[in-house]
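Example record

One chain of 430 residues, shown exactly as stored in the release files.
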Amino acid sequence: MPASVAVQDPWPAPRALAPVDLLVSLPGSKSLTNRALVLAALADAPSVVGQALRSRDTLLMAGALRALGATVNTEGDDWHVTPATFAGDGVVDCGLAGTVMRFVPPIAGLSTATIAFDGDEHMRTRPVGQVLDALRALGVGVDDGGTGSLPFTIRGGGAVRGGTVVIDASASSQFISALLLAGARYEHGVDVLHDGKPVPSLPHIEMTVTMLREHGVVVDDSEADRWRVSPGPVRALDRVIEPDLSNAAPFLALAAATGGSVTVRHWPRTTQQPGDELREILTLMGCTVEHVDAGRQGLRVTGPERLQGVDLDLHDVGELTPAVAALCALADSPSHLRGIAHIRGHETDRLAALATELGALGAEVVERPDGLSITPAPLHGGIWHTYADHRMAHAGVIIGAVVDGVLVEDVATTAKTFPDFARFWSGLLR
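Predicted structure tokens for this chain:
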């Protein structure tokens, strides 16, 4: 992928002056790439992560695994990984990557040395205390000054006892995935019990379990809110990463908002990516959604003459909320988005941010404890603030595609999961 180029800030969001008709190829999935890198670093032999996403989050993960003694060659499209040695002190930069902050500490417990973690300023407000407390219970040395947040230090003992641990993962499914990914390398495996409100984003845990099984790890998830990982080797496995279906949201929303058509190439027929729920969501909003083969293999979305408002529980697919909320502001009837209190702890408080930014452009938005109620109203231009959140930037460009004068602040934050997004988006709307 070409190197990033500087863009104007705030960035004038390009307008779609007619219904679009586009064929789009997307970068690989961040969720799959970072899980694949972790498992490759834990494996019993070298492996290849094919068509890996090259983005800030995935490069941070590669750097974190190098700090643990892995070799991660990110030069080409296919990344070659030699498992970690878990020897020598190291420093991990989490940036704004929740997967790095949460997935790497359970692995760092296997080290014979001390691993220090820190990240961007905002990352110090994101929750990780449940993972750190779980590691303490499993026998890992953790020094966080009692804050339950960055910065913190993992003092490895060369092995982790493992066993049973009870956590409250209602703030993030990543708490559970983090322990499961490392669990096979623990002396007694790991038995994770969730005790709290329903776990958000369950498809991400299912993704983790599936990938572990593909690496030969035995996982028992037959009991609700309980996951048992048996101790044993992690088999090396070469894999090819699927396109990032959550990153498809702004592109498919472009079809919905303009009444045009967008086809995303290589959309898998079956997948555990939460972004696949866009098919159902957009259908409910009045779009025509279909898998296509001849000439334009992928998923095609054709927008309606008028978008319909929706009443949706997005608990399991909270990451789609910003794009869906933007479309709700463009619909012809009110919408209610529910079950997403946990996205207040994402890159920013997404509920508050969406209420503020949509309201500033003229929408009628009521912020509720676990969601948003959106009543469409005539929208106007203005500055759309992103709060260093790539999904907020996606919502801004969706609005800007059909509303004159929308200026997206810090659109470069999209590099978290989609390098050169602004250049790519502009190229589609020329």
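Notes: The chain is about 30% helix and 20% strand.
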